[in-house]
């Protein structure tokens, strides 16, 4: 590049042919440079134009990424592998919400702590009823419905229904429809890309769903004990049967009497394994597994809660393989 002095010289004096030539190269270079700068500015503008989405959980973050692709910058509030039902928010969570163009939540009391945070942010668009608010439970056929009066009893209590609905992979169809609708509402110019991203994701989901169902089909009706009541949607989809829980109530540690009843129930039901959520205390699950002579299976309850559950589809790859392998080993 010519120095600033050289350029000033070229501008102030009549040019020889050679200098004219050099000058035109300089003009082309300057033109190229401004093109490069323009491209960089454009890239920065489109990055800043990306919608900032805050999802309460890593699962909703993964599904939002699948639908939004490079149109979105997605952050989750609950870190991978942390119990969302017993989560305590941190100061950084408010900053995330202040910058959010869209908020996506599980609902049903599962992420009840979000309400207090959005009130503190004070942005009506990300509150219930706002155009930048998605309650992903909308339209999901719920299990264990308790009636409308029982909401937000506390961190662990399940609210109006069992909130672990993302663990039925078929419900990703409904969840991604809600997310796509909200993204289109915020960025209608990108409708086609959002719709195409979702279709591509759902095509892959359907292929894998077929494989997962085939992998677990030989074990239909197999019985399990789980630590927490996280698996009714997963179990129903794949025709598995969770007959009891180590927690007598969500978030409540078991008494010896409860465990004694559970062991007897497990024996009569011929329980095949203990399903364990990675963030729950392991001792009781291990004790039960030893007592019954069955494996303890750590399953991914959310994206990132086990190392192999890197995204939404990988979560089911991992959980299905873990259950199928354990049952095959017991019943080759
Ligand atoms: Zn729960």
What is this structure's SSE topology?
Blueprint lengths: L3 H9 L4 H33 L1 E5 L2 H11 L3 E5 L14 H8 L3 E4 L7 H9 L11 E3 L36 H15 L4 H26 L6 E4 L5 H6 L3 E5 L10 H13 L4 E4 L5 H11 L3 E3 L13 H19 L2
Parallel strand pairs: 1-2, 1-3, 3-4, 5-6, 5-7, 7-8
Helix pairs in contact: 3-6, 4-5, 6-7, 7-11
This protein binds zinc ion.
Keywords for this entry:
alpha/beta; Rossmann fold; four-stranded parallel beta sheet; 48% helix; 10% strand; disordered N terminus; binds zinc ion
Give me a quick take on this structure.
With 332 residues, the chain is an alpha/beta fold. The protein has helices at 4-12, 17-49, 58-68, 91-98, 113-121, 172-186, 191-216, 232-237, 256-268, 282-292, 312-330, and strands at 51-55, 72-76, 102-105, 133-135, 223-226, 241-245, 273-276, 296-298.
Architecture overview:
It contains eleven helices and eight strands. The protein has helices spanning 4-12, 17-49, 58-68, 91-98, 113-121, 172-186, 191-216, 232-237, 256-268, 282-292, 312-330, and strands spanning 51-55, 72-76, 102-105, 133-135, 223-226, 241-245, 273-276, 296-298. Helix 8 links the parallel strand 5 and strand 6. Helix 7 runs parallel beside helix 11 (312-330). The longest helix has 33 residues, at 17-49. The protein starts with a helix and ends with a helix. 37% of the residues are buried. It binds zinc ion.
């Amino acid at each position: 590049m010519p120095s600033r002095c050289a350029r000033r010289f070229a501008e102030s004096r009549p040019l020889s042919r050679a200098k004219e030539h050099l000058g035109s190269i300089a003009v082309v270079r300057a033109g190229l440079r401004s093109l490069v700068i323009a491209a960089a500015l454009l890239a920065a503008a489109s990055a800043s134009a990306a919608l900032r989405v805050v999802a309460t959980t890593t699962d909703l973050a993964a599904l939002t990424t699948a639908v939004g692709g490079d149109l979105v910058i997605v952050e989750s509030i609950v870190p991978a592998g942390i119990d969302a039902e017993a989560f305590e928010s941190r100061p950084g969570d408010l900053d995330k919400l202040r910058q959010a163009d869209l908020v996506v939540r599980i609902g049903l009391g599962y992420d009840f702590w979000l309400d207090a945070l959005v009130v503190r942010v004070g942005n009506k668009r990300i509150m219930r009823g706002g155009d930048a608010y998605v309650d992903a439970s909308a339209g999901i056929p719920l299990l264990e419905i308790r009636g409308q009066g029982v909401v937000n009893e506390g961190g662990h209590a399940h609210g109006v229904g069992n909130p672990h609905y993302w663990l039925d992979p078929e419900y990703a169809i409904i969840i991604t429809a809600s997310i796509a609708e909200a993204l289109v509402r915020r960025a209608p110019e990108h409708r086609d890309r959002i719709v195409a991203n979702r279709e591509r994701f759902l095509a892959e989901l359907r292929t894998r769903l077929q494989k997962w169902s085939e992998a677990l089909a030989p074990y239909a009706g197999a019985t399990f004990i789980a630590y927490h009541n996280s698996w009714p949607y997963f179990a129903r989809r794949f025709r598995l049967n969770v007959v009891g829980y180590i927690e007598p109530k969500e978030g409540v540690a078991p008494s010896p009497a409860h465990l004694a009843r559970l062991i007897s129930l497990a024996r009569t039901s011929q329980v095949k394994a203990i399903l364990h959520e990675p963030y729950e205390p392991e001792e009781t699950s291990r004790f039960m597994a030893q007592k019954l002579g069955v494996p303890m299976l750590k399953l991914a309850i959310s994206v990132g809660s086990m190392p192999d559950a890197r995204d939404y589809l990988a979560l089911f790859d991992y959980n299905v393989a873990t259950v199928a392998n354990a049952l095959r080993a017991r019943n080759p």
